[in-house]
Write a structure and sequence with these properties.
about 290 residues; alpha+beta; D-amino Acid Aminotransferase, Chain A, domain 1; D-amino Acid Aminotransferase, Chain A, domain 2; nine-stranded mixed β-sheet; 8 helices; 15 strands; about 30% helix; binds N-(5'-phosphopyridoxyl)-D-alanine
Length: about 290
Amino acid sequence: MSRIAYVNGRYLPQRAAAVNIEDRGYQFGDGVYEVVHVSGGCLIDAGLHVARLERSLGEIEIPMPLSRKALEQVFFELMRRNRVREGLIYMQVTRGVARREHAFPRPAPKPAVVMTIRRLPPFPRDVDAWATAAITRPDERWRRCDIKSVNLLANVMAKEAARRAAATEAIFVDDAGMLTEGASSSVWIVDREGTLATRRLDHAVLPGCTRAALIGLMAEAGIAWRERGVAKAELEAAREIFITSASSFVKPVVRLDGRPIGEGKVGPVTRTLFALFSHHVLGAARNAPA
Ligand code: PDD
């Protein structure tokens, strides 16, 4: 079965789907995106992702191309047409098509909207097998990483460096030696005192939807955590590290720059939070319409 993509209001076989070569996303990276996890035919934290899309668009002055409700309808239609119940939805909105000129085109073109869906294995059951390795990298990105922009060159370079080091994530460290976030994830540590911590939100990091969902789950479960700066040395000396994102959920990091973190195994806090998030995802899936 050929995959079906959504392109500017139409559902097309993905092979035939194309965007204009003067699309500003292609020319300038002038656009934003979202990635939403689908589990058991249910959208996970879709409200958070759509709200963040709206915010990212607002920050770069692109109007929201579809209402929140219409967007969610397209998500379900993509799931239906592609028969995907376990996977990831990718959604991208750019400023649209115009003759190449850096400043915003006048009059404003219609934003270009592309969405695709990709099948993935169901939510992992085995947290030990889900564990991964990461490297650290200087954060060479721009100063508005709170916008989920399609400009991902620094992230691409960092991910490739991770792959060459037999790792799957690169954790960015800023010029002051403090961690910001992963190339495609939020980063958490359990420090030497046993405190769970993650960096505060500002323009240097993306406000992760999985981070927000996990914080809500922890509040319900009475699990304490702190928002604070984490130096690279502290990251290296952490008892536990894990990352969160729409595609990695709660993913233990058991090796950093080739050295074990803690005992080099999944730690108890990460294990608990993985289970908590797994209930969230699988519970949502249980309540989804068939
Ligand atoms: N990445 N930080 C960065 C730089 C990211 O790219 C992502 C997500 C996150 C976590 O955000 P969320 O929990 O909302 O997925 C943090 C997506 C999955 C991606 O680029 O594929």
